Structures are given as structure tokens and as C-alpha cells.
Amino acid sequence: MGINADHVQLTLDMEPGLEERYGSLKEAVAAGVYRHGLKRVAGKLYVYPGNLSVMLSGDGQRHFDLDLLEQYIEAFDDLTPVYYLVARFCGDRLADQSDALSRVQLLLEELPGLLAHAGVNAGGKGKRKGR
């Protein structure tokens, strides 16, 4: 991933299938927590392992809040939850925009030939019969 200070361009190298692999942001976080070890993550987040487990299960009164999400991402450098959100909410839009730009580029490349075929010269004036 790179952010250039001169541009508002963001390039992400994401694993394919994140949106299909996880049904929700909470599932993406839970997978990372259990991959890094529940006790270890709980210690870094200053919560009891049992409470963290309940937060991630979706049962009960305890909920995994955004502050804990930020702490988790920072402590474990796990960007999977961020990538999941990008894939879920921006992926199709980015793909659609890229496809549209590719189609525009192809049309622009074909435009001179189409204009010539239609009898329109480079100056913008076409040959008209009957005038």
C-alpha cells in the first residue's frame, strides 16, 4: 500500500476473496484474534480473554467497539479488517470505475476512425450532400 503526498491516490494489494471469506467485519477481526492467540490479543487490548471471546461471538451484553478495533490493528499490524471493509464497500465501485475508464480509452482510440468513416474531418466539419 502506498500513499503519495502529491496525490490522493491509494493503491491496495489485497488478497482476493476477503468479502467471501468473512461474513462480517466482526468475523474478520475474530479470525485475526484467534490466529494471533486469544490470550495474547486480550493482554494487548487490556481485556480479559473471556470478555474478548464474548465480544467477538456477538452474544451477550459485551460488544467489540471501534476503539478496540483500532488498538488491535495497531498492536498486531493486521490490516485484514480494513481490507475487508474496502473489498465490501469499495471493491465493486473501483472495479466499475476502472472498467468504465478502460472502455472510454478504447472508444477514444477508435474515435478518429469512426469520425473518418462518418465523413467528419479533423476540423469538425463533415461532408454534407444537398447543401
Explain what the structure shows.
This protein is mainly alpha-helical. It has one domain (18-118). The protein has seven helices and two strands. α2 runs antiparallel to α6 (80-89). The longest helix is centred in the last third of the chain and has 27 residues, at 91-117.
Strand fraction equals under 5%
Largest sheet: 2 strands, antiparallel
Indicate the low-confidence ranges by residue numbers: none
Q: How many discrete structural domains?
A: 1
Query: How many helices does DSSP assign?
Result: 7
- Give the SSE string: EEHHHHHHH
**CA-based gyration radius:** 26 Å
Instruction: Tally the beta strands.
Output: 2
The first-to-last residue Cα distance is 60 Å
List its traits.
131 residues; mainly alpha; two-stranded antiparallel sheet; 62% helix; 3% strand; rod-shaped
Helix/strand layout:
Layout lengths: L1 E2 L6 E2 L6 H4 L3 H12 L1 H8 L3 H9 L8 H11 L3 H10 L1 H27 L14
Antiparallel strand pairs: 1-2
Helix pairs in contact: 2-6
Summarize the model shown:
This protein is mainly alpha-helical. The chain contains 7 helices and 2 strands.
